[in-house]
Amino acid sequence: MPYTYFNKNHRVIKMNDLLSKLTQKKQKLDSFRPLSLALVNNLDEWFKVELTYTSNAIEGNTLTRKETALVVEEGITVRGKTLKEHLEAINHAQALDFIKDFVGKKREDLTKRELLGMHGLILKKIDDDDAGKYRNVAVRIKGTDVILPNPLKVPELMDSFFEWLHGKNNDHPVKIAADAHIKLVSIHPFLDGNGRTARLLMNLLLMQKGYPPALVRKEDREAYIDSIQKAQLNNNFKDYYKVIYKAIDRSLDIYLDAVEGKTPTSVVQKRLLRIGELAEETGETLHSIRHWLEKGLLEVAEHTRAGYQLFDRSMIEKVKEIRRLQREERLTIEEIKNRLES
User: Dihedral (C-alpha) 176, 193, 85, 311: value to the nearest 10 degrees?
Assistant: First the structure.
């Protein structure tokens, strides 16, 4: 039976409908292929920084997006940040380069060697003793009741994992990638770096099927972690799939905006807007933007050190849609929120 969830209007939304939406967007993206080399390179570089920043931030790394770019692209040391945080950025960027070598292959070709290679890069010079090796000690995740497998069972569980990964599977490729992620983090085969390695594997599986990597943002951290724990504790996956599918949908929008010219290639590296810039681009007042933000209709992508709110450029279209729903359909704020969520 397909997973479902209810929005606030109590309308049933099927997970298959979300997958169909992703399929349609990918087909639209495919219609633009082959993409220009300049655009591909620009998007690859942007995603390298963004994925490195977000994946590390989820694990507690305090480098900002801009600082991550400086470390990854310029090799600059950021004052006040630890050596470990610098290495986490460098290692993740190198791991992304590593998995690109396997994008042209099939998931059946991915073996323990490739997975340990990803993990080895993640912990390179941070914990060389455990890098690229299964754990041999028991571990617990702080703040959760999730019981992780005994270390003696890890090799057997990983063998079963690869049997599943290599087996015949007629599920949607997005669901297979999401399932690979949740299965791996639930086995927790490594002493550290499980989340980053699982996200790398998921994104490799997505890219092998022509999808962009899933962009699980720092702002999604709580929902992302809660959804994983709910799946592990209660076998309830609906919130987990919702978070992952939304992350992939976000990445598809970034690609489509770029290929359709809505986001010029030169702007892909500079997608964030201050609230005044968002108001100017949409023709709205600061009061309206702040009101919609307060009501949960808009999302803040990041805060600067000085506390300024930064918005993703996708919020431009959302602001326009909010105003259209107010003017043309005369919906209330709550109705608009429900419409946007659905």
Answer: 20
What is the token pair recorded at 239? 């919130």
Residue 198: other Cβ atoms inside 10 A:
26
Residues of the chain with CATH 1.10.3290.10: 18-262
Quote the CA–CA distance of 50 and 106 in Å, as a whole number. Answer: 25
Within 167-313, residue ranges assigned H as helices are 173-187, 194-208, 221-234, 238-259, 275-282, 286-294
18-262 CATH, one of 1.10.630.10, 1.10.3290.10, 1.10.8.60, 1.10.287.130:
1.10.3290.10
Structural contact between residues 92 and 213, judged by C-beta atoms closer than 8 angstroms: no
Radius of gyration of the chain (CA): 20
Right CATH for 272-341 from 1.20.1540.10, 2.40.320.10, 1.10.1660.10, 1.10.3470.10 = 1.10.1660.10
Q: What is the pLDDT of residues 255-307, one digit of tens each?
A: 998 888 776 444 444 557 889 889 988 999 999 999 999 999 998 877 766 67
Which of the 8 DSSP states describes residue 82? -
Cα–Cα distance measured from residue 72 to residue 94, given in angstroms and rounded to the nearest whole number: 9
CA distance linking residue 319 with residue 301, whole number of Å: 15
Residue tagged active-site, from 188, 287, 291, 303? 188
pLDDT in tens, 112-143: 999 999 999 999 999 999 999 999 999 988 88
Q: Is 303 a catalytic residue?
A: no
The pTM for the full model equals: 0.77
Residues of the chain with CATH 1.10.1660.10: 272-341
CA distances from 241 to 57, 87, 147, 261 (A): 21, 31, 21, 30
